[in-house]
Design brief:
The complex is a heterodimer of chains A (368) and B (616). Chain A is globular and about 60 Å long. Chain A is α+β, with helices and mostly antiparallel strands and 368 residues long. Chain A folds into 2 domains: 263 residues, no CATH class; 93 residues, no CATH class. The mean pLDDT of chain A is 91. In chain A, strand 4 and strand 5 form a beta hairpin. In chain A, helix 1 runs parallel beside helix 2 and helix 7 packs parallel to helix 9. Chain B has 5 domains: 149 residues, 2-Layer Sandwich (Beta-Lactamase), CATH 3.30.450.40; 103 residues, PAS domain (Beta-Lactamase, 2-Layer Sandwich); 101 residues, Beta-Lactamase, CATH 3.30.450; 69 residues; 143 residues, Histidine kinase-like ATPase, C-terminal domain (Heat Shock Protein 90, 2-Layer Sandwich). Helix content of chain B is 40%, strand content 25%. In chain B, the strands form 5 sheets. In chain B, strands 2-1-5-4-3 form a 5-stranded antiparallel β-sheet. The longest helix of chain B has 39 residues. About 2% of the residues of chain B have low confidence. The chains are: A alpha+beta (368), B alpha+beta (616). Chains A and B meet through helix 4 and strand 14 of A and helix 1 and helix 2 of B.
Chain lengths: 368, 616
């Protein structure tokens, strides 16, 4: 495995890609990049199409390398094993038969880990994740997250040998073992509340009350703060929702907007299920990242690299304390590469595969 | 939140995933995903348990992952499935652990099968497993319903495939609360035959779509029970006869029916034609019958004509009668049977029979031998010719009288007249000459009678041809020898042959003789012309026209010929014209007479000879 970082995408990155692809022993490339106009040019697309090895990856709000996070530059990871690439398009189309696009025989063929990157603004992400789980269960350890930028303008954000694509998912399966840790550090302060009216990722009512009214009551009781539509985004990053699972950490659903008493979240909130209101602080979040890294590095895998996919909202919440979160992962004396994502995808090899919000995912990978 | 609360919440959330989906597999798959998601399990499967009657085994309905063969936890769960021959409730739940430390458990889905769930790095505790029981029952019920629905759908699909594959019109009906039988579904042949689209038929009374032509009823009354009926219905084209089969779906008490319309128009047409044919055969005054071959022969079928001819009381009398018993000489039967068997057919064999009342009868039998079901059968037609036979006998007697007795008498008269002439002197010679002339006429009449007999002996069969120029040369020579002072002229014509034999010469001689003998002109003149026919297709027929300068045939003579009947008041003066008429008729031709400016004219029209026929 080789890891090359470039500070400025452009000709330099294209040269790096071509150089890495032609390096002896490199069978594939994982490309993680921060947003840059140069990535959207025809020239860069041509470079991707001309590469002699499989390439996959995405554009994320920030990338992680050398123990820090940055919103510029790119990481070129040359893999010593050939990845099996699957591109799933139409990720917003409810009619797409995701299971039909997946090859269920990959585990039997020796593939153990799958990097999964998705266009974070696609509308059928949960359905796609379900299809992944139904097809592979824990036969493949899955690690990855949502690609895209935080700007209002949407662009293609996934790298493939066909170029840059959008509204899609890229799955790169490799015959390399991983151990994965998944934690977020938020704990329940109120609930559960039954979802009595919801539509996709929009929550209309909880326990038959307008969702935002109930949310306001909870925050006011817990923190003595009044939440208004105006200060909602600033408050909500501290108080996400949680979907409970028996014998497991709650799934975080991050509310990001309020409108006429309804709240929009990253990820669906199925009607009939129960939500709790969670909260966390810098210490609990950093501790969670540490736990995830500990879990990843304590398995049977002897890692040569740690993969770290952390939610961009944690950066926004932790602010300066995010360095502590990074340190919690980089302290494990292994090189760390990764990205700050818009939603995370992972299973820990034991339980269910899920689409997470506000979660730190650490993977220890060997033989890549 | 306590563990109990969380468990209840989890169970509730799982229950949301249990319900009927599009198929049994989808129902099971979605529920399985809900179980695994909420119990934080990683693998699972749902099996349908088939009873001993169905083979006592398990059918995998859903698994996660999709290919379970490489998953050790699921494989361990598969291996732990309970004995399919024994009740599952006595053996479940079952839990186990793999070498890798994964746990699995097998839970009963009552009256359906088994749910397997497994997880790595943890286990589903016993309290939770117990708490899952009502959910498992709900899942089992959903799967059972879907299974039955699927089986019904398969049956329905099979039924619909058969329904649409039937080449005859078929309609599925239901009886509504008002007792009106309405259309539920029709097949394509129904649409094509009756001219309605499937959409246009749905929900309409069957009687409004399939209307009887004969009765013209306003509706199709619901029959009290199922069965066949035959009726004529209006179709898209016109109307057709149908055999209608109406069958209740689900038993006699059901309110759903299948109507099958079999178009039997062709069959009915054949049946009507057969009935007409049978009536014809029954009613003609000819015996039609079937017998077995052999010296005796058995009757197999007789018509009313045979019953009447042979003076039987009914057809049944022939059942115990052998064919040979009808023969006046029973040994003749064997000869006839052998002849028919050998030749394959006979035509007009005249036989002497006796009726069942013992009266003698002459019959002409025509028939053929046919092979039927591995045996030879004679199909025969019998005509009563007793009257004809008797007439022939009478003619033979008369002919003998004319030719033999009359001639002998004339010889005696002529001899005596000569003696008388010598004795009485010349003053009585006119009377003597008159007697001799009458005797000569009577002898000529006797000769013509003989000629006519030979004419008829040859019958209508004409296998020879006559080259007309040769024939007319012969006639001319004869004419000039017989009538040196008369004029005979043959018009020039292209060489042509006609279908005829020596009888044609005989007829022409008669006409030419008549033209001269009955001619009152000082120099009788006769001309003959040969040309393509005018009254018939000229490429097939030839006209032979004889014209003289005489007074013509008296109208009453020709009228007798044309009507074909002589009476004591209306008759000809001799046999000559009859001889010509019968000759032409026997040769297959026609004759016509007319008066022309120069005298009279007779046209004989005969078939033109074909190249295959030999010259006479």
């Amino acid at each position: 495995m080789t890891v090359t970082s470039t500070a400025v995408p452009g000709d330099n990155l294209q040269e790096t890609l071509v150089s890495t692809a032609s390096t002896e022993g490199v069978e594939g490339i994982c490309l993680l990049a921060a947003p840059d106009e140069a990535l959207l040019t025809d020239g860069f697309e041509s470079t991707l199409q001309s590469l002699s090895v499989p390439v996959f990856g995405g554009i994320f709000p920030e990338i992680i390398h050398h123990g820090t996070n940055t919103d510029s530059g790119a990481l070129v990871v040359g893999l010593s094993v050939a990845p099996h690439l699957t591109t799933v398009e139409g990720l917003s189309d409810p009619e797409t038969a995701f299971r039909d696009t997946l090859d269920p025989t990959l585990p039997a063929a020796g593939y153990q880990t799958a990097f999964v990157f998705i266009d974070a603004y696609s509308e059928q992400i949960e359905q796609f994740i379900e299809a992944l789980f139904r097809t592979y269960s824990v036969e493949l350890n899955v690690i990855g997250g949502g690609a895209g930028t935080l700007s209002d303008e949407r662009h293609p954000c996934l790298f493939t040998n066909d170029g840059l694509i959008s509204d899609a998912a890229v799955i790169a399966a490799v015959p390399a073992p991983t151990t994965i840790g998944v934690n977020h550090g938020y704990t329940k302060i109120a609930g559960p509340f039954r979802v009595t009216d919801a539509e996709g990722s929009t929550l209309h009512s909880l326990d038959a009350s307008p969702a935002f009214e109930l949310y306001q009551d909870v925050i006011e009781r817990h923190a003595g703060r009044t939440v208004t539509p105006e200060n909602f985004f600033g408050v909500a990053k501290s108080y996400p929702f949680g979907i409970s699972r028996l014998d497991g950490e709650q799934l975080v659903r991050d509310p990001f907007a309020v409108d006429d008493g309804s709240m929009s979240c990253f990820g669906t909130v199925p009607e009939g299920e129960f939500l709790s209101v969670l909260t966390g602080d810098a210490d609990s979040l950093v501790a969670a990242a540490h736990t995830a890294a500990d879990h990843a590095t304590s398995g049977r895998v002897d890692p040569e690299l740690l993969l770290f996919f952390d939610c961009i909202s944690r950066v926004l919440y932790l602010e300066d304390d995010f360095d502590r979160e990074l340190a919690a992962v980089t302290d494990h004396e292994k090189p760390v590469v990764g990205a700050l994502t818009i939603g995370e995808i992972a299973n820990d090899g034991a339980g269910h595969l899920d689409y997470f919000n506000k979660t730190a995912v650490v993977g220890a990978i060997q033989d890549v | 939140m306590t563990d109990r609360q969380q468990r209840i919440q989890t169970l509730y959330e799982i229950s949301l995933s249990i319900g009927s989906k599009g198929t049994l597999a989808e129902t099971a798959d979605d529920a399985l995903l809900g179980y695994l998601q909420k119990l934080n399990c990683s693998v699972g499967a749902i099996f349908h348990h088939r009873s001993a009657a169905e083979g006592a085994d398990y059918e995998t309905i859903a698994t996660i992952p999709a290919v379970p063969e490489s998953n050790n936890t699921l494989q361990a769960a598969f291996g732990a499935l309970p004995d399919a021959d024994r009740p599952l409730s006595e053996q479940l739940p079952i839990s186990g652990r793999t070498e890798e430390g994964a746990h699995f458990c097998l839970l009963e889905l009552p009256n359906f099968g088994v749910l397997a769930i497994g997880k790595h790095g943890g286990r589903v505790d016993e309290i939770t497993r117990s708490a899952l029981r009502p959910l498992n029952e709900k899942l089992a019920e959903a799967c059972r319903s879907k299974l039955i629905e699927t089986q019904h759908r398969i049956e329905r699909n099979r039924f619909e495939a058969v329904f649409d594959a039937i080449p005859e019109p078929v309609v599925n009906t239901v009886i509504d609360d008002d007792g009106i039988e309405r259309v539920k579904h029709v097949n394509t042949p129904f649409e094509e035959t009756f001219g309605y689209s499937a959409a246009a038929t749905h929900g309409r009374p069957i009687g409004a779509l399939v209307t009887p032509v004969v009765t013209g009823g306003s509706g199709f009354e619901v029959a009290a029970d199922e069965g066949d009926e035959s009726e004529t219905f209006a179709t898209a084209d016109s109307a057709a006869d149908f055999l209608v089969r109406r069958v209740a779906v689900g038993g006699p008490e059901a309110d759903e029916y299948i109507h099958l319309y079999v178009d039997i128009s062709v069959h009915k047409q054949h049946q009507r034609e057969l009935e007409r044919y049978e009536r014809l055969v029954e009613n003609i005054p000819v015996g039609v019958y079937r017998t077995t071959p052999g010296p005796d022969g058995e009757f197999r079928l007789v018509n009313q004509g045979l019953v009447d001819i042979l003076e039987a009381d009914s057809a049944s009398e022939f059942e115990t009668l052998s064919v040979s018993e009808l023969y006046a000489d029973p040994t003749t039967r064997e000869q006839f049977s052998d002849l028919l068997a050998e030749q394959g057919s006979v035509d007009g064999i005249e036989l002497e029979f006796q009726t069942l009342k013992g009266n003698p009868i002459w019959v002409a039998v025509t028939g053929r031998a046919v092979e039927e079901d591995g045996e030879t059968v004679f199909e025969l037609a019998l005509q009563d010719i007793t009257e004809r036979k008797e007439r022939q006998q009478q003619l033979a007697v008369l002919n003998r009288v004319l030719r033999h007795n009359l001639r002998n008498a004339m010889n005696v008269i002529r001899g005596n007249t000569q003696l008388l002439s010598e004795a009485v002197g010349t003053q009585h010679h006119p009377q003597i000459d008159a007697i001799e002339q009458r005797v000569a006429n009577l002898e000529q009449l006797s000769n013509k009678a003989g000629t006519m007999r030979s004419l008829f002996d040859q019958g209508r069969e004409v296998t020879a041809t006559v080259e007309m120029s040769d024939l007319l040369d012969e006639l001319k020579a004869d004419f000039q020898s017989s009538y040196p002072s008369a004029c005979f002229r043959v018009e020039a014509f292209d060489p042509v042959s006609v279908q005829a034999d020596v009888r044609l010469k005989m007829a022409l001689l008669e006409l030419i003789d008549n033209a001269v003998v009955h001619n009152t002109e000082p120099e009788p003149a006769v001309s003959v012309a040969v040309s393509p026919a005018e009254s018939k297709p000229p490429d097939c027929w030839v006209d032979i026209t004889i014209t003289d300068n005489g007074p013509g045939i008296p109208p009453e003579e020709w009228q007798t010929i044309e009507t074909g009947e002589e009476t004591p008041l209306h008759h000809g003066t001799g046999l000559g014209l009859w001889l010509v008429y019968w000759t032409v008729s026997l040769l297959g031709g026609e004759i016509a007479m007319s008066t022309v400016e120069s005298g009279s004219q007779i046209v004989i029209t005969l078939p033109r000879a074909t190249t295959e026929q030999p010259a006479n």
